[in-house]
Give the backbone structure.
Amino acid sequence: MRAGASSGAFISFEGGDGAGKSTQIKRLAEALRTAGHDVVTTREPGGSPGAEAIRKLLLEGSADKWTPITEALLMYAARADHLERTIAPALQRGSVVITDRFADSTMAYQGLAGALGKETVAALHKIVVRDREPDLTIILDLPVEEGLKRAGAVGGAEQRFESKGAAYHEKVRQAFLEIAQREPQRCAIVSAEGDSETVAARVRDVVQKRLPSLFKA
Ligand code: TMP
């Protein structure tokens, strides 16, 4: 979703719980600011006042609180607000937008790993996202056990998805790899193993290769 002739770009980070997305987003945002860009970092579910209210409904409570279709509709309701109120205006201004999760999360968690199936998620995607896809999606890949260990260490009230069990999270991991295979132009898989410095260097390498104009003076 390049914003015309301006310098902006839309980048999403995806991956299982505990893959270290927020640390890597901070690091990439710093590098892009140093390169002269205005950078907006945001997240899903959330990223606008309305979508943050929906986030609370989604991430707190028991694992079976919502039926699969309600869960996916809430994710897409939040996404519609986030796109209209935060992402699209920032791209219009020429900013680089980096979001911690976007539509691939719904395809992976609700569509492929969950009970909903990919056709239903694809139908919602067509209505809400249309052609407003990220220019680049970085999928941070990590063995499930390691990810859940890292995510559990953070703790807090937002544990609804973490509590769904290792088998579900293994399906989520495979789902992201499948999405990357289906859309190699947009997606890049980056190993999240190792320290954050090492992973940041891998991420920067991918961004430089895929979106070279972002690092040109
Ligand atoms: P976070 O822990 O990365 O903030 O993500 C919150 C949780 O929400 C995470 O466990 C994944 C889940 N999620 C979905 O299941 N579907 C979605 O579409 C999104 C955006 C997140």
The CA atoms of residues 137 and 187 lie 5 Å apart. The pocket of thymidine-5'-phosphate is lined by residues 17, 44-45, 59, 75, 100-101, 105-106, 109-110, 161 (CB under 6 Å).
